[in-house]
Inverse folding.
């Protein structure tokens, strides 16, 4: 298309125009890279120049040791306003720990006196009946009887299937992490909204936080706060807060100008303006942020258990390490159930209509508070009676149903009966897709890699983008992690390709009708609600450890955005264009091929971008099943508590993410411009 | 204007220029850049050299099409935005030199504003919305809610105090907006296209409501609209704006009779003149020669007496406010107005 365009515009240069053709650029680059990659080893032999394929150690500034030394200094000697940094972190830990202990006491341990084995329980924790009644009442209050039933079913499931104590432990950390992350995010967002320089300073940090894998900051947190629930909470809060900051800024900017003017006309002080007008008006959007914070917190549950969180995440992690299928699936399902309950509840809360609010604010004190009063009553009664009969206090062990054996049997059955088929599928994909791709990426020498990425940056986004890409990729090379970075790119690329091949048609299907939309939508929603770790369990059981398992888990996790963006792209095509196609007599296939697909390319690129981000964040998790990429590097750093190594490898992942993000964003922008969209 | 009236709000040589370094730009052109100057430097003159006096108790309408600068002007007058240059005097005080704190005090006690899209706070009930300006001032709950109930009743929403804005129709929502702006008993009442977002029938109803309220309250009003019919209906005086400049300030009748230029004339062309013109503007000089049908007042509008004059074969004497005969009219003059024939005057 662009060849013919050039022909029309500059007829004199038409003989040279093919040189500028995109086919030549991309095709040439690919062929050259392939050749160099294939023969890089021979080239190194021929010239006897090892530096071609391996970046010499002598040229590497030792980032790892420097960062580790800095962290040591920070913890040992650094002072903030004359107070030891160590004491600051301790104080912070105490501030988080106090409310956490309280909630854990309420839900799990009860009130105790004394230490360790001599501890005597003075008051028991809230009874399971009381807790289930309370959440059911909350469900009814926020939405409807059906929501109440959902809450009752979810929490009863936790009790009946023997996950109660772990689930309450997890719930306790959610109850602490969510208010701090949401509240802190809100405050920072408000600050960024009001103070320009805070906004400017926060923006790059937020960008980076979005791309740095969680594992990278687990190490320094572990270093500063020690192994335990506090570290886990700090990591969770850091992980869940950035989206809330973003949502807050967007929400505040989205408040209609008229409301801000109203505030000034009635003489609001700046503080009244913010807290009486802007924040309440932005509440529906802010609640979306809170929902995100809750989901991210649950996402972190398993990862956080690596640095000392108890509860369901710990159960999954130990099961995974023991290859205990049943236990892993049980605890994993419990996380899912908890996630669904909290997700639906917070969503219902954010979409509460004013009619409900109006209806609920009528009547006498007793009427208005009948549910909360009743809940307190049930909690008190079951608590007192629980002192006598233990089944009221905690769900009787005898009545616990275990599904562990069922899962073991199911996996066993599949393995026995379908082993050959699964193995054949795995081997075919490995042989014809994964391994060649891996060889291709592994063979690219660092020098050529730097040249290629910079060229691509220049082609897509001009000089500035090329410079950025050059610096980021150059930094990766300087750390000596080029080989591992290429493995990362390979695994991520393969997974993203497969996720797109599956996800985009699914998205097109979802956009084609109401029923398919509901079905696909429900499927994707469920995928997104599951914490990333949960994917690993069945995959490992079926395919054992290795790149293939990692890839399947990544695909499952990263599928959602590909589907969502494709469907959204199709839906947002101007209906007049579709009608124009129909009137011109397009067949269904022509309509898809000639009209819809070209129109949604920019949207697809954005989806691809998101898919890559999710794939990269999952990569680090799949390190658990034995990949050999940057994720593994981060994971090793975590187990050795090597701060420098963890941060450097984490940043390398972030740099890859930022490079991919900027390149895709720039090309999506270019295309939208060419198509006259926005 | 025989009686010298007190100007409550007054602006002199007011400019609002958007672009790079607007202050420097204005100075460079001696405070009076031309359209070409603005264009040459990519500046936007949202309000250009506005001079307005708003007298106590009058309805002053600022009329203009979208992009004419009327919204910017009213935001300068209420100091929601800071004018680039000029003087702004409210009740004898220079508003532009006030600190934020003083400004908050003035707005809390003396100004009210009604917004085009109502600007109701979605999380508050009708009662809480109406009481909001008082809450901001720190008034006790009982006192402010009592006052809010008064204004809600005034705008005819009694019984809906506990509704939320989303449960009301557009017209009702704007009634809440009006009630809220009246809660502080403002001296100066800004209405920024208050009825533009409403359906035509509701708009008409709200205009009637507005006229009824003003009949009781006698506020000083700055009313923004892009609807010339609305302006004619409500205004004591109208300022017509175009491209940031005030083209003409006059009473509706003067606008119709003596439009300053073709632009204003274009607006007035399809106006039902009988509703705007008074008898005084179409009289023939001298008393009736011969038999007299009766007397009419010079300040009566044509449509009010059209039937009466048409039914009579004879002419009427026209009296001014002091009862002196200033001229006479007959059927011919009335019909001229009704069918839109060029009026001799």
């Amino acid at each position: 298309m662009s060849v013919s365009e050039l022909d029309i515009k500059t007829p004199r240069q038409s003989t040279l125009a093919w040189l500028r053709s995109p086919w030549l650029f991309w095709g040439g680059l690919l062929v050259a890279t392939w050749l160099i990659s294939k023969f890089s080893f021979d080239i190194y032999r021929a010239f006897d120049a090892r530096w071609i394929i391996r970046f010499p150690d002598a040229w590497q500034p030792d980032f790892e040791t420097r960062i580790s030394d800095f962290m040591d200094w920070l913890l040992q000697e650094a002072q903030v306003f004359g107070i030891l940094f160590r004491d600051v972190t301790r104080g912070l830990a105490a501030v988080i720990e106090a409310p956490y202990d309280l909630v854990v006491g309420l839900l799990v341990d009860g009130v105790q006196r004394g230490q360790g084995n001599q501890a005597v329980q003075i008051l028991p924790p809230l009874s399971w009946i009381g807790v289930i009644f309370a959440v059911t009442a909350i469900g009814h209050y926020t939405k409807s009887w059906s929501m109440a039933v959902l809450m009752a079913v979810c929490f009863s499931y936790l009790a009946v299937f023997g996950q109660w104590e772990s689930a309450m432990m997890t719930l306790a950390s959610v109850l602490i992490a969510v208010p701090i992350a949401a509240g802190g995010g809100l405050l920072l967002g408000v600050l960024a909204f009001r103070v320009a320089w805070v906004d400017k300073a926060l923006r790059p940090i937020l960008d980076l936080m979005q791309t740095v894998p969680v594992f990278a900051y687990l190490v320094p947190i572990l270093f500063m706060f020690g192994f335990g629930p506090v570290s886990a909470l700090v990591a969770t809060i850091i992980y869940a807060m950035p989206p809330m900051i973003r949502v807050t800024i967007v929400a505040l900017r989205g408040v209609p100008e008229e409301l801000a003017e109203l505030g000034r006309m009635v003489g609001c002080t700046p503080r009244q303006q913010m807290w009486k007008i802007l924040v309440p008006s932005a509440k529906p959007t802010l609640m979306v942020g809170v929902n995100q914070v809750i989901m991210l917190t649950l996402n972190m549950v398993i990862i956080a258990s690596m640095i000392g969180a108890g509860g369901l995440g710990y159960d999954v992690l130990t099961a995974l390490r023991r290859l205990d299928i049943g236990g892993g699936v049980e605890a994993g399902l419990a996380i899912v159930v908890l996630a669904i309950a909290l997700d639906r509840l917070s969503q219902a809360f954010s979409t509460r209509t004013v009619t409900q609010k109006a209806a609920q604010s009528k009547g006498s004190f007793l009427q208005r508070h009948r549910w909360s009063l009743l809940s307190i009553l049930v909690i008190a009664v079951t608590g007192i009676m629980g002192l006598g009969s233990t089944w009221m206090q905690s769900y009787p062990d005898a009545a616990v149903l275990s599904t562990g054996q069922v899962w073991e049997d199911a996996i066993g059955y599949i393995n026995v009966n379908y082993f050959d088929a699964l193995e054949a599928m795995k081997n075919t994909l490995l042989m014809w897709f994964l391994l060649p791709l891996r060889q291709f990426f592994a063979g690219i020498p660092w020098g050529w890699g730097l040249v290629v990425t910079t060229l691509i940056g220049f082609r897509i986004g001009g000089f500035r983008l090329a410079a950025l890409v050059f610096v980021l990729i150059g930094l990766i090379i300087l750390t000596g992690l080029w080989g591992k970075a290429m493995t990362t790119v390979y695994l991520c690329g393969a997974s993203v390709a497969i996720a797109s091949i599956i996800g985009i048609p699914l998205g097109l299907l979802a956009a084609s009708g109401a029923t398919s939309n509901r079905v696909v939508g429900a499927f994707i929603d469920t995928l997104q609600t599951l914490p990333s770790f949960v994917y690993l369990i069945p995959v490992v059981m079926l395919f054992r450890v290795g790149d293939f398992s990692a890839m399947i888990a990544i695909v499952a996790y990263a599928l959602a955005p590909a589907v969502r963006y494709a469907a959204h792209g199709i839906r947002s095509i101007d209906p007049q264009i579709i009608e124009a196609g129909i009137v011109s007599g397009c067949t269904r296939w022509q309509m898809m091929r000639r009209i819809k697909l070209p129109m949604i390319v920019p949207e697809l690129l954005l989806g691809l971008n998101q898919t890559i981000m999710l794939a990269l964040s999952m990569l680090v998790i799949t390190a658990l099943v034995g990949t050999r990429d940057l994720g593994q590097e981060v994971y090793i750093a975590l187990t050795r508590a090597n701060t420098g190594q963890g941060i450097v490898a984490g940043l390398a992942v972030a740099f890859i993410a930022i490079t991919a993000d900027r390149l895709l964003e720039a090309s999506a922008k270019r295309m939208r411009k060419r198509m006259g969209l926005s | 204007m025989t009686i010298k009236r007190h100007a409550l709000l007054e602006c002199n040589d007011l400019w609002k220029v958007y672009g790079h370094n607007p202050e420097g730009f204005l100075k460079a052109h001696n405070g009076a850049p031309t359209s070409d100057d603005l264009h040459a430097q990519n500046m936007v003159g949202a309000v250009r050299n506005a001079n307005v006096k708003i007298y106590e108790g009058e309805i002053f309408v600022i009329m203009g099409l979208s992009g004419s600068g009327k919204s910017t002007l009213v935001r300068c007058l209420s100091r929601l935005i800071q004018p680039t240059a000029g003087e702004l005097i409210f009740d004898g005080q220079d508003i532009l030199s006030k600190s934020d704190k003083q400004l908050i005090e003035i707005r809390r006690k003396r100004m009210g504003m009604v917004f085009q899209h109502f600007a109701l706070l979605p999380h508050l009930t009708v009662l809480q919305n109406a009481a909001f300006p008082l809450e901001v001032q720190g008034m006790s709950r009982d006192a402010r809610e009592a006052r809010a109930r008064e204004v809600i009743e005034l705008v005819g929403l009694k019984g809906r105090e506990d509704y939320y804005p989303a449960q009301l129709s557009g017209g009702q929502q704007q009634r809440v907006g009006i009630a809220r702006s009246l809660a502080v008993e403002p001296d100066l009442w800004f209405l920024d296209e208050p009825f533009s977002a409403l359906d035509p029938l509701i708009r008409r109803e709200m205009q009637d409501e507005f006229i009824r309220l003003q009949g009781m309250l006698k506020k000083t009003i700055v009313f923004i609209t892009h609807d010339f019919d609305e302006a004619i209906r409500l205004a004591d005086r109208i300022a017509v704006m175009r491209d940031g400049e005030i083209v003409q300030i006059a009473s509706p009748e003067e606008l119709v009779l003596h439009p300053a230029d073709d632009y204003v004339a274009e607006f007035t062309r399809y106006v039902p003149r009988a509703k705007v013109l008074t008898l005084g503007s179409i009289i023939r000089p001298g008393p009736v020669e011969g038999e007299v049908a009766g007397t009419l007042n010079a300040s009566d509008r044509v449509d009010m007496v059209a039937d009466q004059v048409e039914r009579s074969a004879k002419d009427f004497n026209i009296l001014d406010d002091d009862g002196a005969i200033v001229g006479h009219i007959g059927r011919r003059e009335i019909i001229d107005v009704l069918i839109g024939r060029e009026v001799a005057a």
User: Anything to note?
Assistant: The interface with chain A takes residues 75, 78, 80, 103-109, 111-113, 115-119, 121-125, 132-133, 135-137, 162-167, 184, 190 of chain B (CB under 8 Å).
